[in-house]
Amino acid sequence: MADWLAALDRRAELRAKAGLTRRLNPRPADDQMTDLAGNDYLGLATHPQVTAAAAAALSAYGLGATGSRLVRGSTDAHQALEDELAQWLGADRALVFSSGYLANIGALRALVQPRTLLVSDAHNHASLIDGCRISGAETVVTPHADVNAVAAALAAAPGRPAVVVTESVFSVDGDLAPLARLHAVARRHGALLLVDDAHALGVIGPAGAGGVAAAKLSGEPDVVVTATLSKALGGAGGLVAGPAEFVRHLVETGRTFIFDTALPPAVAAGVHAALGLVRAGDDLRAELSDRVGLAVDRLRAAGLTVSAPDAAVISVTAPGPEAATTWAADCRDQGVAVGCFRPPSTPDSRSRLRLTISAGVPRAAFERAVDVIVETAP
Fold it and tell me: Core-most of 42, 222, 344, 364, by most CB within 10 Å?
């Protein structure tokens, strides 16, 4: 009976030798680390208006939603949030899930019909990859941001329903997908376009409405938008936005929506308050953009290989998995939290630090954090 545990130990040993050990690092409420690893891009997770709205809803509704959305889990807090999300994104309707991961899986399952072909970017997030797999549809993985490869995949499947699947701002290197060109190719072949706007929402586009809005694709009938509420909006949960007919289909058939306990109303209310701040947050976005530019300039001046970020994700290449792990640990020892991405989590077998820039970090602490990353570089 212990053989399976011994096998797990052996796998852990092999991961450790390859520099791929992962550990939980719990943080206290009064954590003093300078955070360049989290996704609170605009610093709204602790904004007084956001926490006050969440606290008021917590007092009114209690801790949890008490059920799935179709049983007792839907509240007026959910409805108000969904209405404003749809208006912000220029979509017919928006639907809130308990996580962005479940939103992606649910959306992909709902888009698949018999003979559907999914055309997925090689750098897509794990939730999109898993959504393609769980859907059971044939999936063609195309080279990263290669519009010609997408066109070829669609041309090779004439007459079949198809969905082009992409992030807007990619979560590993922070580059922006060629959304307008992807949409043009998809439409030419009668395909739909699903865009995970997680790392763009709140950061780019008019009023921070994301990459789809920036590409002038808001409200297009052949575009479905997914995102998480846990990044620039500072909360938790996920969303799917698109044509009213599709959202209705999700409500009636989406397993990750129907059979999951709803997002707590307090979180919905807090995110709704954050949404108002995001829509009026051009000054925050300007500060965020300035910080991204400063970080990229300093890192490149130090001779480091840095991605060209289109939002607030910066990728800094490390020599290998062990070097990346050591580099991240050295930063942490000096009070700076950074992301550490290594194979097999990376789509290109390249190790890197991932920096997620936040306008909520005090400016002096942010600039010192960039210096620490340079000083500890392998």
Answer: 42
Q: Give the separation between CA 231 and CA 233, rounded to whole angstroms.
A: 5
Q: Which of 47, 125, 144, 272 is catalytic?
A: 125
Q: Strand pairing of 352-356 and 336-341?
A: antiparallel
Q: Considering only CA atoms, which of 98, 110, 54 is closest in space to residue 261?
A: 98
Catalytic residue among 167, 197, 220, 287: 167
The bridge status of strand 238-242 relative to strand 223-228 is antiparallel
Of 231, 272, 287, 351, which is the active-site residue? 231
Give the sheet arrangement for strand 223-228, strand by strand. 93-97, 238-242, 223-228, 192-196, 162-167, 117-121, 138-142
Confidence of residue 321 (pLDDT cuts 50, 70, 90): confident
Q: Look at 200 and 172; give whichever has higher pLDDT.
A: 200
123 is catalytic: no
Of the candidates 224, 193, 271, 191, the residue with the CA atom closest to the CA atom of residue 94: 224
Task: Give the orientation angle of helix 244-253 with respect to helix 100-111, to 10 degrees.
Answer: 100
| Residue 118 contacts residue 153 (beta carbons within 8 Å) | no
Tokens in use for 310? Answer: 């289109």
Q: Which residues contact 194 (CB under 8 A, 6 or more apart)?
A: 107, 108, 111, 163, 164, 165, 166, 223, 224, 225, 226
Active site residue 199: yes
Q: Which amino acid is at 271?
A: V
Q: Tens digit of pLDDT for each residue in 58-74?
A: 999 999 999 999 999 99
Rg from Cα positions in the chain? 21
**In the block, which residue shows the tokens 């950061």?**
203
List, for residues 251-305, the tens digit of each pLDDT value.
Answer: 999 999 999 999 999 999 999 999 999 999 999 999 999 999 999 999 999 999 9
> What proportion of the chain, given as a percentage, has pLDDT over 90?
92
Determine contact, residues 361/41, Cβ cutoff 8 Å.
no
Estimate the crossing angle of helix 321-333 against helix 363-375, to 10 degrees.
140
